[in-house]
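Dear colleague,

Thank you for sharing your sequence with our group. We've completed the structure prediction you requested, and as agreed, I am returning the results in plain text so they can be pasted directly into your records. Please verify that the sequence below matches your submission; if there's any discrepancy, let me know and we will rerun it promptly.
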Amino acid sequence: MKEHLIFYSVVKKYFIELKRYFLNTLMTMGGIFILFMLVFFGLKSFEAGTDTLQGTIVGFAMWIFAVMAYSEMSWGLLREARDGTLEQLYLTPSTFRRISAYRVFGSFIFQFVLFLTFLSIMMVVTGQYLSLNPGVIILIVLTLMSIYGIGYIMGGLSLVFKKVQAGNQILQFLFILLLVLPTITDHKIIYFVPISWGNNMINRMMIDGLSLLDFTMIDYTILIVNSFAYLFVGLFIFSLMEKSAKKRGLLGHY
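Please find the predicted structure tokens below.
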């Protein structure tokens, strides 16, 4: 079977599932939007500055994007195992990691459209308008690579240990801390943890109106090394967990 047919099938399956459970997705987004409004107007009631309010919009939108990107790998594997289709994916001519990469690509398209839609609605409702430079797409892609790496780690753990939902939920809240970290400290730790430095650059572009050319080579080096390091570590750990699950015959069990 040719790779482009596998790619088409995986992406098509993803969008069919989205259509089937669209109401659930819509209700989830509605709940998140209500939470955002409570946080935003809560800060506004304390007379927070414009930069703080705009930073809240960017941070919240990035948090939603990060959680969706991370969940695609971690929760996605749990769903496949629960539905009994995980073992079948390993029987295809392509590798599972390649199939998961195709699904990540398809999900990124949908999530990016949702990100822009959510961001636009938040700007209109709050009256706080941001700079939407097309170059921000590059920063978002690089930033999310570290999140996909963490998703692969949790996905690998779910292959072996199955029940890792509690860890998934903890990480969702940990992402909030990582996103706000650059605003509460200038310690070099933000260079080494996932998503923090990338979100800092995205904030500077969308709030301060910077372009890609305004960042230094050091900025890009930190972002690229950080993102690829987490991605490769995630893939490596996933590979180890995958081999362990195959050896112990755990792929067909939930």
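Summary note from our side: The radius of gyration is 19 Å.

Kind regards,
the structure core
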